[in-house]
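Researcher: Next entry in the queue.
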Amino acid sequence: MSVDSSNDKAFQAALARLWARLGKITAFSFSASNGPGSKTNWRGHGRGEVAVTSDEGNLIFSEQAEYTDGDGHKIRLQNCYRWSRDDTAIRLEHLRREEPVLLFSLAPVTEHGFREVAAHHCGDDIYTAELLLHKDQLELIWQIHGPRKNERLHYHYW
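Model: Structure for this entry, 158 residues:
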């Protein structure tokens, strides 16, 4: 089933399903890989916990993980993200030093699939994303392309 703003009931139901699932997340894993032309060494995998809190109608994800890079080095990582919802999309922001940096807004494109409303530009880099709502997990895939980057971040939340 395709979801668009002309089918408002299905659109709102998809947003509501995703929002309800976000509030129940407790753990995540991710893999990072770089493709042809990438000049970064952002490749490896991690696994960690998510503490979800509610703040003025937003959901705050405080993530802590152990990341193993492509050379086998283990690194402790922590990130803080804010999810917010409006009538058309669910927005994801990275909270750096408490300042929000918009990554993307995700709108339903199918009953269980979401895609960025518009690509996010950060300097010369372009971020895109898709999110899949599975029965027992969320799958979030980011792509980052730029003059020095060709990266893919593949997250699983449950």
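Model: Residues 55 and 82 are 9 Å apart (CA to CA).
Researcher: Noted, moving on.
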